[in-house]
Amino acid sequence: MRSAPLFGLVCSIFGSVSAAAAPILVNEFNAVSSSMYLNGGTAAADSGGQPTADTTLGRVLGNGGDWLELVVIQDHLDLRGGSLSIDEGVSPSRTTTVLTFTQAGLWADLRSGTIITVAEDIASDPTYDPAGGDWWINVQASNTASGQFITASNFSVSNDNTQITVLDALSHVWFGPAGEGIQPVSGVGNTEVWKLEASPSAAVTPTSNYNDGSSSSFGAPNRWSGGTLVQDFSALRSVVVPEPGAGALLGFALVAAALASARARAAA
Q1: Fewer CB near the terminus (10 Å): N or C of the chain?
Q2: Is 261 inside a domain boundary?
Q3: How many CA atoms lie within 13 A of 124 on its CB side?
Q4: How far apart are CA 11 and CA 188, in angstroms?
Q5: Counting beta carbons within 10 angstroms of the beta carbon of residue 222, is it exposed (0 to 12), middle (13 to 18) or buried (19 or more)?
Q6: What are phi and psi of 176, to 5 degrees?
Q7: What pTM was computed for the model?
């Protein structure tokens, strides 16, 4: 695991701790081994006999494979040309994979509070409509993916000192490195996820309350303390006025009809 002196060297190189508020942050990544289940155990129950499962994926072997999650903090963020630098392992076998977001229009105007997941084994779902309540984008990064939204390359995240850095189109650091060896210094297991146990905001840095745990939530607000605490996105998402639902539209129509009828009677 990462030592404190090396952590200091990394921070001095990347400037992560003292950097200005980041426009985007790393929220979660999956460290569950491909041969294990979330919190251990079997397909039926975890090591404690509980049906622990990801809130989106359910209880599946490997907990969905290699995936990571980002949260947009700055409203109207342009992510085109930005990239992820993913480091894993221990020297001299430590590896770095760079995934670059394409020039696709999907990335041109991201609203604050948007969740972006990058997954190796889960197909892209670029549908995105914050005003309609859809705040989640998933894109697939793998050798067999289309490369329409992000580099078509396999990547790996695990409990082996995974650290992720988010960079802008000019390769300036936006956020990171963040991961095991930064916060927490060690302890991420191969039946756990690494995640932010606090609500996302401009105040979050790589040394904020990141932890390992078994409450997993692919594409959704993080949970912790056995799933009893949940991230609050309301402040970030307050910039978007939701589209009125069918009930509200019907109500407006009825009110308008009643007013028109009243005016007609008054004019008669």
Answers
A1: C
A2: no
A3: 17
A4: 20
A5: buried
A6: 115, -175
A7: 0.85
